[in-house]
């Protein structure tokens, strides 16, 4: 499946556009199917309705586990590195991982889980998280992993949206010198979740937890009660594999749905190709399994290719900013896939933390989550890769399932801070505001995709209309990404950032409407408007303009109260970096907040605010500018 030269890429790309079905059928041949497909693809982008490998039967865990046993059973599948560098790391061979997945799958079955049931997973970055994910897939249950930083309310919303039957969690998690009491958060969440029947709790931090009789069970007890044989459920290629919630410009987060066959082919193919993974290599993706990056490039992509995937529990700066580099040295990491925000944060410590660490094992570097700035790109290239490792700047989304626009390591000529070219099978185009295609090179537009690829989302859980409205209605017959993009003179794609009301904070997608709703829940707040602003480390920070007429004591304390409310409603990741109290917001006569103006003010711009003639009360702008300059 691996492309070896630029000429081969060009030829393959052309073939994938001219004959998409033949192309993807050829790729799919590299996977294990219980029964092959009757039809490669049927689709339309109006409903939308997308089916890949219709009629095929498979189980993704047989591709990720069983098929490697004979030749590579004793090869490491997962290497786990603890938050605490003093704790020994753990290696699970394919044989052991297979056994543990089967065992835990039997635990789920024993507790009444059936094919199609939704399971919520809220866990630390430990091997049992990957085991839980795979155990669901083994028996055809649909996993919905929730990142450990979300609040009880966010969890409850997600659990209720998809009516989860069972929750898998742990007592707590370690993140640097902090501990998160996961079980306590789950207990709070479950007060409002009538569908949840059982909670399985892994022992990890061993903090005291309450265990409710009849509902809560210990992971360690349960796995003793079952055996290690668990045949893989036969799944239809278009059966649901997982739901992953993600924020958009309006409303509550939506449950992006991925299906078994297409997702597997796409995650496996893109992993093998873009990173040029070679047998025996150690792949270290620093994301959390709670995000799509972790699903596709810690769990499914690497394991489907028989790779060794490294799971790291902690954070890049704990106990020191040498941690990533020490992990690379300790485990002889060959491919390091991380985020611009991590690079910028580590860059701020200079090169001292890299001194004396042997990183000669590194062969390929990767970046994901947000546009990488040139300074960070060069630092990564020079200080980490010693100018010997290609950097694959991979553009993609929760909805795309896998990499879309990305260099192929050792194949695509690189350009700093540029996602370069579409991978085979990906057909991007740029459109103007009216949806008219912008042709030629050296142009800017809104990034759309005009043809399906196997890893694309199929729907948003429980609300297909929302999927249609969000992704397929802005521009008829096109999938709209929400990103702005430039195509340079050489036809290279460079993502410029979101063009909708979504903020990208440290590579995490946060909807402005969601943050506003959370702020508005705070007593005393009348109204608020949230925009992004450039932030040195996070890429974008959150700037909140808040109308709060009767501040009951010091404004600084009130700001902290508001942050607390946001933490309660969404989670700490959505806390505004700046709060500005204002007496009014710039609105049009029809009552629409002019965010364009607020964005400029948040960026520190005070003069060229553009046309303000449609404002109901232009004076409010001067007042906000004056207040912002004080902040
Ligand atoms: C949004 C998707 C896909 C994994 C992590 C984020 C931005 C992602 C890049 C990149 C520029 C990027 C886009 C995209 N983004 N990768 N290499 N260059 N921007 O997943 O939470 O679904 O967010 O992240 O704006 O739309 P996500």
From TrEMBL:
Read off the Gene3D superfamilies from this record.
3.30.300.30, N-terminal domain of ligase-like
Enzyme category, top tier? ligase
Domain AMP-binding enzyme C-terminal stretches? 514-592
Q: Which GO terms describe its molecular function?
A: acetate-CoA ligase activity; AMP binding; ATP binding
Where in this chain does the record put each Acetyl-coenzyme A synthetase N-terminal domain? Answer: 9-64
User: What's in the keyword line of the UniProt record?
Assistant: Acetylation, ATP-binding, Ligase, Nucleotide-binding
Question: AMP-dependent synthetase/ligase domain: from which residue to which, for each copy?
Answer: 66-452
Q: What is its EC number?
A: 6.2.1.1
* A GO BP annotation: acetyl-CoA biosynthetic process from acetate
Organism domain of life: Bacteria
State whether keyword Ligase applies. yes
Q: Which InterPro entries match?
A: Ac_CoA_lig, ACAS_N, AMP-bd_C, AMP-bd_C_sf, AMP-binding_CS, AMP-dep_synth/lig_dom, ANL_N_sf
TM region positions: none
| Family indicated by similarity | Belongs to the ATP-dependent AMP-binding enzyme family.
- Please name the NCBIfam families in this protein's record: Ac_CoA_lig_AcsA (TIGR02188), PRK00174.1 (NF001208)
Protein's name in the database: Acetate--CoA ligase
Which species does the entry assign this protein to?
Answer: Pedobacter cryoconitis
């Amino acid at each position: 499946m691996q492309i070896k030269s630029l000429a081969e890429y060009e030829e393959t790309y052309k073939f994938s556009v001219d004959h998409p079905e033949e192309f993807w059928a050829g790729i799919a041949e590299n996977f294990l199917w219980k029964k092959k497909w009757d039809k490669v693809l049927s689709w339309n982008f109006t409903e939308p309705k997308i089916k890949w490998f219709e009629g095929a039967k498979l189980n993704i865990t047989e591709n990720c586990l069983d098929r490697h046993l004979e030749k590579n059973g004793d090869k490491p599948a997962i290497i786990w590195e603890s938050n605490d560098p003093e704790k020994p790391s753990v290696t699970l061979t394919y044989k052991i991982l297979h056994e543990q997945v089967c065992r835990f799958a039997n635990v789920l079955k024993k507790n009444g889980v059936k094919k199609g049931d939704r399971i919520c997973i809220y866990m630390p970055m430990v091997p049992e998280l990957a085991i839980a994910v795979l155990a669901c897939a083994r028996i055809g249950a649909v996993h919905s992993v929730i990142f450990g930083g979300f609040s009880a309310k966010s969890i409850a919303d997600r659990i209720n949206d998809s009516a989860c039957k069972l929750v898998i969690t742990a007592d707590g998690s370690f993140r640097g010198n902090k501990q998160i009491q996961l079980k306590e958060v789950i207990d709070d969440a479950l007060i409002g979740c009538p569908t949840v029947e059982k909670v399985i709790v892994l022992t990890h931090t061993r903090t005291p937890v309450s265990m409710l009789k009849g509902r809560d069970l210990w992971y360690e007890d349960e796995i003793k009660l079952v055996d290690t044989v668990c045949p893989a459920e036969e799944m239809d290629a278009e059966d649901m594999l997982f739901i992953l919630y993600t924020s958009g410009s309006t409303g509550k987060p939506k449950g992006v749905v991925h299906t078994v066959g297409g997702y597997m082919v796409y995650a496996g193919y893109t992993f093998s190709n873009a990173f040029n993974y070679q047998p025996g290599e150690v792949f270290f993706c620093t994301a959390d399994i709670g995000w799509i990056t972790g699903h596709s490039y810690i769990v499914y992509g690497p394991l489907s290719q028989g790779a060794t995937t490294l799971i790291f529990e902690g954070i890049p700066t704990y106990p020191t900013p040498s941690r990533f580099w020490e992990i690379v040295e300790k485990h002889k990491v060959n491919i390091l896939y991380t985020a611009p925000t991590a690079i910028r944060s580590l860059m701020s410590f200079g090169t001292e933390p890299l001194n004396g660490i042997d990183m000669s094992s590194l062969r390929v570097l990767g970046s994901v989550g947000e546009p990488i700035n040139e300074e960070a790109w060069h630092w990564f290239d020079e200080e980490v890769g010693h100018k010997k490792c290609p950097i694959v700047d991979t553009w993609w989304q929760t909805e795309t399932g896998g990499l879309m626009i990305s260099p192929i390591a050792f194949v695509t000529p690189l350009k700093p801070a540029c996602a370069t070219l579409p991978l085979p099978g990906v057909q991007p185009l740029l459109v103007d505001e009216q949806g008219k295609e912008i042709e030629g090179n050296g142009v800017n537009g809104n990034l759309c995709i005009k043809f399906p690829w196997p890893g694309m989302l199929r729907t948003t859980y429980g609300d297909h209309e929302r999927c249609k409205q969000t992704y397929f209605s802005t521009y008829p017959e096109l999938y709209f990404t929400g990103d702005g993009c430039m195509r340079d003179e050489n036809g290279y794609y460079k993502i410029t950032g979101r063009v909708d009301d979504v903020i990208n904070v440290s590579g995490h997608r946060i909807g402005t409407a969601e943050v506003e709703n959370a702020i508005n829940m705070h007593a005393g707040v009348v109204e608020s408007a949230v925009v992004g602003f450039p932030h040195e480390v996070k890429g974008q920070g959150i700037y909140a303009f808040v109308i709060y007429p009767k501040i009951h004591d010091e404004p600084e304390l009130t700001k902290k109260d508001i942050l607390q409310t946001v933490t309660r409603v969404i989670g700490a990741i959505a806390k505004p970096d700046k709060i500005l109290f204002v007496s009014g917001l710039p609105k049009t006569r029809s009552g629409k907040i002019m965010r364009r103006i607020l964005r400029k003010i948040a960026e520190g711009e005070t003069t060229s605010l553009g046309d303000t003639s449609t404002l109901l009360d232009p004076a409010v702008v001067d007042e906000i500018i004056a207040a912002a300059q004080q902040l």
